[in-house]
Design a protein that fits this description.
This protein is α/β, with parallel strands linked by helices. It has a single domain, classed as Rossmann fold, CATH 3.40.50.720. The chain is built from 5 helices and 7 strands; from the N terminus they run βαβαββαβαβαβ. Strands 3-2-1-4-5-6-7 form a 7-stranded mixed sheet, with helices on both faces.
C-alpha cells in the first residue's frame, strides 16, 4: 500500500482522493479552508467543492504540510497560480526523487511557464508527472467510466 498526499481539496483533489482510497491506498488531503477540513473529517463530505459525494471515512484532511510531505506520492491539485507558493517552502524537505504529480490545469500567469517547468525549477530532484484527461470531478468520484493519462 502506498501513501498519497493531495495538496488541494477542491473538486478535483477530492475526486482523486476517492479513487485512491477505493484502490486501497492511504490518502491525506491538504485543504486551505478550515471548514473543508472539518467537514471531510467529521461528516465525510466536501459540500463546498464536491457536493453530494460521500467520502470514505478513512480519507483524512488537514491544514498542516507536515501531514503531507512524507507521503510516498504527492499530488498537486491546487489552482495553478498557487503551485509555486505551495512548493517553495516545502521543497527542501521533500525526499530525493519525491514523486510529484501535477493534477492542476493551466500555466503560471506571471511567468508564462508550464506547471511542469515550475515544479522542476522549485524541486529539481523530484520526479515530476502530469495527470490529465477528459474528466469531470463528480463523474470520477462516482466511479463512472473515464479516461486519464499520466505522463512523466
Amino acid at each position: 500500500m502506498h501513501s498519497f498526499g493531495i495538496i488541494g481539496a477542491g473538486a478535483w483533489g477530492t475526486a482523486l482522493a476517492t479513487v485512491i482510497k477505493r484502490a486501497g491506498h492511504d490518502v491525506t488531503m491538504l485543504a486551505h479552508e478550515r471548514s473543508v477540513v472539518e467537514s471531510i473529517n467529521s461528516k465525510h463530505l466536501n459540500n463546498d467543492f464536491l457536493p453530494g459525494i460521500k467520502l470514505d471515512p478513512e480519507i483524512y484532511a488537514t491544514q498542516s504540510y507536515e501531514d503531507i510531505i512524507n507521503k510516498d506520492i504527492i499530488l498537486l491539485a491546487a489552482p495553478a497560480q498557487f503551485i509555486r507558493d505551495i512548493l517553495t517552502p516545502i521543497s527542501s524537505r521533500l525526499a530525493a526523487a519525491q514523486p510529484l504529480v501535477i493534477c492542476s490545469k493551466g500555466i503560471e500567469q506571471k511567468t508564462g511557464k508550464l506547471l511542469s517547468e515550475v515544479v522542476s525549477e522549485i524541486s529539481p530532484n523530484s520526479v515530476t508527472a502530469v495527470l490529465s484527461g477528459p474528466t469531470f470531478a463528480d463523474e470520477v468520484a462516482k466511479g463512472l467510466p473515464t479516461a486519464i493519462t499520466l505522463a512523466c
